[in-house]
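ligand=iron/sulfur cluster
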Amino acid sequence: MTENIVTAPNMLADAPPGTLSARDFHSGATPIWCPGCGDYGVLSALEDALATYGRPPHEVVLVSGIGCSSRLPAYTSCYGFHGVHGRALPFAAGVKLARPDLEVIAVGGDGDGYSIGGNHFIHACRRDLDMVYLVMDNRVYGMTKGQPSPTTEPDWDSDIAPGGIGLRPFDPLALALAAGATFVARGFSAQPHDLATVIVEAIRWPGFAFIEVLSPCVAFRREEFDWKASVHPVKQTIENDRAAAHAAILADDGFGLGVVFRDYRRLKPAPEPQRVTLAEIESEFRIGA
Amino acid sequence: MTENIVTAPNMLADAPPGTLSARDFHSGATPIWCPGCGDYGVLSALEDALATYGRPPHEVVLVSGIGCSSRLPAYTSCYGFHGVHGRALPFAAGVKLARPDLEVIAVGGDGDGYSIGGNHFIHACRRDLDMVYLVMDNRVYGMTKGQPSPTTEPDWDSDIAPGGIGLRPFDPLALALAAGATFVARGFSAQPHDLATVIVEAIRWPGFAFIEVLSPCVAFRREEFDWKASVHPVKQTIENDRAAAHAAILADDGFGLGVVFRDYRRLKPAPEPQRVTLAEIESEFRIGA
Amino acid sequence: MGRSSLAIVFAGSGGAGAMTAGELFLRAAATAGYYGSMNRLFGPQVRGGESAALLQISNLPITCQPDNFDLFVALDWHKVDQFAAEIPLTENSIILADPQSGPVPQNVARSKARIVSFKMGDPEATPLERALHGKHTNVFAAGAVGCLAGIDPAKMRAALSTVLGSKAADVQRLNAASLEKGAAAAATLALDLDLAPPKPAPRWLLTGNQAIAMGSLRGGVRFVSCYPITPATDLVEWLAPRLQQLGGKLVLAEDELAAINMVLGASFGGVPAMTVTSGPGLSLMVEAIGLAVAAEVPAVIIDVMRSGPSTGIPSKTEQSDVNLAIYGGHGDAPRIVLAPTSVRDCLFTGEWAVYLAESLQTPVIVLSDQALGQAHQVIDPKPDRPPPLARRIELPASKFKRYATDSDPVTAMPPPGTPHGQWVGEGLTHNEFGIPVSGAAAHAAQLNKRARKLAQFDPGAWWGDVWGDGDTAILTFGSGAGAALEAAVALGAAGSPTRVVALRVLSPLPLAALATSLKGARRIIVMEQNQGAQLYHHLLAHNAIPPTADSMARPGPLPFRRAEIIARLAAQV
Amino acid sequence: MGRSSLAIVFAGSGGAGAMTAGELFLRAAATAGYYGSMNRLFGPQVRGGESAALLQISNLPITCQPDNFDLFVALDWHKVDQFAAEIPLTENSIILADPQSGPVPQNVARSKARIVSFKMGDPEATPLERALHGKHTNVFAAGAVGCLAGIDPAKMRAALSTVLGSKAADVQRLNAASLEKGAAAAATLALDLDLAPPKPAPRWLLTGNQAIAMGSLRGGVRFVSCYPITPATDLVEWLAPRLQQLGGKLVLAEDELAAINMVLGASFGGVPAMTVTSGPGLSLMVEAIGLAVAAEVPAVIIDVMRSGPSTGIPSKTEQSDVNLAIYGGHGDAPRIVLAPTSVRDCLFTGEWAVYLAESLQTPVIVLSDQALGQAHQVIDPKPDRPPPLARRIELPASKFKRYATDSDPVTAMPPPGTPHGQWVGEGLTHNEFGIPVSGAAAHAAQLNKRARKLAQFDPGAWWGDVWGDGDTAILTFGSGAGAALEAAVALGAAGSPTRVVALRVLSPLPLAALATSLKGARRIIVMEQNQGAQLYHHLLAHNAIPPTADSMARPGPLPFRRAEIIARLAAQV
Ligand SMILES: Cc1ncc(C[n+]2csc(CCOP(=O)(O)OP(=O)(O)O)c2C)c(N)n1
Ligand SMILES: Cc1ncc(C[n+]2csc(CCOP(=O)(O)OP(=O)(O)O)c2C)c(N)n1
Ligand code: SF4
Ligand code: SF4
Ligand SMILES: [Mg+2]
Ligand SMILES: [Mg+2]
């Protein structure tokens, strides 16, 4: 199958006139999040990004699963759906496929996205629909009060896994890359301004844009507040060269922030089929006189 | 968490005395496979490998999901389980965790393993239990009569996806690698002898050993018989260097056969907890007089 | 003057082409003006194993499998006898077999059917021709049966070319020759299988799966997401290109969890959406069905039932997902469950399901089964159509509350893109605005809102079909309805007036209509094809039948036949 | 001589430590020799929001929540009034509140309870001390209530140090001081809350979740795989270290699909295995439960029910998974469904479930609920234990057929590693050797084999609990049983003899025993905590109750209380 190179036209476009502000994307509902939870920073970065991007709230759909982080949609003024645990991505895909005119953003946590939702994650990377997936990774199941997730360090002690789960954590960026993602980035909730910039770029990306956001859990992973000292910008954004991107991700300490990889190579879309009417379809059944 | 280097003691051991033959692993049941199906070659390679490895059939458990390929367990004389579609790996993990003394081998197809079972696949790579996972990849759902799977070429025409599914196929080896697999190999059903060698090595590998086997579907993918002309040995087996392995896999045309990657680095297992009795546990509840 | 119906089997091993013979014959007979139906049997092999085409041709609509087959055409005998239980023969049946195929297998011979030796295949073909082009035994046999049944040879030729499609000209020519030769050879047989003259009329030839698919398109479904599963896959394979040509989308999901959630997403987006599956897939979907109930998202779920539990017998029929469809899912999650009463009714029920889902903002499960879904049938083409019902989307004049409980329980559901209509679909217990809350009052209010939606759903005359008013009532659904009706007709003729009630709405049970339909019945028998008597217990659970009602339940995969029902009714008195 | 029971609430916002006060008080009272129980309420915040500890202390075992609370201790008033519906107060109740916390919120004041001003916290502590060590208002309040109830101060001190655990010495010292000061301050209040002297005996303090976990360990479970879900997670969190210390394994699966399949794998391996979940997880497991039925693999599945459908109210109770547990799954897949009748019975039922699963080679679902699971209760420590039953593993003398149908339906299931025992577990319809087949006869034979296993299961005396023989019968299960019993006692005392039947076996229904237990009852009311009257309809479905029986069903999350039941019974006459 031949390939197309997309130049992502709207990537190059100027930001639309700033008629919207972050406030326009705020619902006013009170988050149930613990004071100090990293997810507040993500919410504000997202509101900023949407204002910058400039489509009105009613043309944006936020889809989530279940978890602390998955509560986010109701805190915005957009259309939203708070579905079941782990299924944000297929729901979002359904919205986008049925309504390509809408801006679709799926959000959730590391448990929702990498544990129960892992299969949808890799398949969404492969399916490459034009949407954003933003994971607030706190390396714990916050909502169920502190169990290790697929990104938790192997020796993190918890009631359910005394002494640590003993498994090498997933690197979500590597997984996304191996599954075929065309846009892979990492952000940090305590740097909402930079995060907003990445989100805007992700929204403009004409395919599946994955953003892993480090978002500390103040209740169960206090030590994650030290992430502030660890983060640093990624060395460079790698384009098209997937092997180089893998090498860069593996060489990184897991705290490099920014867009890690963009792949402009695309498959040619199938030609539009010829249109028919319902009556024509029915006529296929006709037999006899 | 500190790391251990495993030297895989039984990797170095000689093959046990050849008291068993491939026939000892044959159940005599007649496969429902189409004449010429690639899976026959896999079955015979597996029987050979088990004979070479030398544990008797009653100490081996073969676990599968649903699909043509997943019918394999009943064709051997081992213990087996033919479960539901996509769940071979968690079932096999349950067997292995409960009974580490057994030899556990999960088998199945590309639909079973990479589509409905995709989440278990990546988590099994991460969990790294001492078992083998062998996927008979024919790039199609054979059992349901010919729909594109996650490894199917984007332009393969079928009733359900006229003109092609239009998605870039998964590279299962890249996915396994990104998910943390420590042993990654590719085999070909039409080269059962080489495949048997790889299987023996996989059985001996003290962790999760993944073998992707190209296994043509004569009924729905006749063109796959041309794979004979395409396959070639991999350039080298890469050890420990995951980035290099990614690069090698991406550089390969998808037809390189052999062991692609081995990772000897391991996490230190958690220390054994102190033993208690049921009565001691009950005494925790005691209160009062 | 000829018989009014004829039941024929073509059977043979892999290459023998029993299915082609069956399709060709069915099409020819249908074109000639007969009603007809064809069911298919396959051996365990994935492809190319032995198979049998079970046909009926008649001057009346066909709604169930025959008590016995009149004619069994053995293209060869290779493993064909494994189908014996599914192909009842009697002493009055005729077996047409080539002596070269060897002796009739015991399982088949046991029927004492009359065996007629019949050399099949072109006696004049050279060995080279045979090797190059196959023996066309199947087309030869079809030609023979066409002649015996008195089907117009021109219709046979036309059907052959339709069935062969775009095959090469020489293939067409050789097959056409075999067809003629078969007819010629049959003329030498002294067999009386002549059908009464047909009554041609414009008809449709289609499967139950195609009929449901067509109904759903009529209903407005423009998004389908699914994961392949027998015996539902051919439904979506038929649908895929057509849906695209209508501007819709069919997506192959990674699993059933994704499929149903994609459907909910598309539906949330404002597009009527559907998924199609069988038992194992439905089991995987019940969590999301509960979400659709709680968040009030329309969705159509087609379950083409097969023998269960677990993987069961994927290619064979049963009606054992009744419990799952009605009761599957945690929490109180009532939904609508429908079942088509015939292949023809699949068109109606498929369309109606969409209207109900959309207008009530609820999941609707349609329980079809393999016997309906994969039966090829000739039907009358203009079945009733349900009046269209649409989703309520207009914003209220007052403040918009997506989950308002103080009004009509069906509340506005504006699609994304509607200014000022923003809402968040919510699967947690929520207040009227959709914000999660955990109080008992809000919980009860929303449960009641949803219950009221179903309570106000009035299926009108479409709750089910009633035939007759005999004092014995057979209460059934789905593919059982046709056989029950035939049994009732026979029983009535024999002096035991019997009525048949076929439920189209299995849940919520149409209690009042059901009571009316059963009025005066002194004996009620609930007939269904599963071991657990699932419908029977469901009816008892809601006092829809008296505790004294009988159950006639048995598992699949054998279809109910008229004779079995009559015998069971007699035995149970 | 003092009252025989006392119901107390400690409530306050995040930092106020209502739970610690409750735990400390419960432990002290239990050590002193009282029965007791504690339920917990939390606000919507994930952590640290407002909370309330609902306690009862009594000289009799406690089995349900009280009609009203005697004492409401407000550590502060921040958002505490959201719990009002769950904390019934009357004019006879007393509210103890610090005037500094501001006025009593309307929702609470509406009860007309007597408000008693009470300065909480150490009046002598310096601001620096308070800033450094917190105010210990909660411990102060617990000390006060201990004094009012007449709990031995030494027991209060001991309980405090247990609850504080390994906290630093100065923290211990300051808290101990607060405890004393609270007691001293309370002595100045003219309140009569004195309890009658306790009747000490060896007792256990545990939650229902812990009791099920302990029961399962006694039953031999040595493998658990699960995915976290409220309110089941604390069960596995308690179990995890202990299981390891017993040489078993607890695995955190990637999802519930993996969890249940891992359980089946471990069980196939020969190790009794269990998973623990709540409604959404159970929904995801039904496909594999059908596999366990078909392939005949033992498995214990604990469902700690919460309010549904969909995500519902994760932290609150309901009994709405009855349908799913009994009927969930495609095909005919009967299984055993049990429900513990009390926290104490969780020990028994947890253990019994393992024996039934193992001995009948079938999945067993245990329906607990949040109200049982997360209730801390003081119980008598030596409940009955069921006699151990084990898996049949010995190979027969004759040729081994894993799925033999000609004998005892429970056939040998040798674990892998057994020479000559090889078999392949099969979810497809299979013959006696486990080879997939598609014939009707084999299909029926295996369905019958499995049905016979359940038919021959005789629960003996453990099918359920019966109290009394009044002519009104309340038929219920799970956490409803205690409240029903209290209502029955009260009704009997008031001249309306009422019996209570609590089912331990919900499926297959113990029809004969149930009929005996209901003999002579002129009125039957099925009481359950869900909207759909799921148990009621299940009983009707099997003619286990007459169509005239009444239903008393309402959704959660409010618990049934004695007063509500009495009122409903009176209203329905
Ligand atoms: C099917 C199902 N299983 C389990 C749960 C329980 N559950 C709710 S949230 C959650 C994990 C949340 O973790 P994550 O996605 O990382 O979100 P966080 O709370 O950390 O933001 C789990 C296991 C559920 N709601 N549904
Ligand atoms: C839950 C569920 N969904 C769908 C199916 C139907 N199904 C059976 S096998 C199969 C795909 C098999 O493909 P693969 O694993 O590649 O095996 P192959 O037949 O190609 O060897 C599907 C979709 C099923 N049995 N269960
Ligand atoms: S528990 Fe953790 S993730 Fe959840 S709201 Fe609190 S801080 Fe945030
Ligand atoms: S359909 Fe394909 S995969 Fe299945 S048995 Fe036939 S050749 Fe093999
Ligand atoms: Mg998390
Ligand atoms: Mg395949």
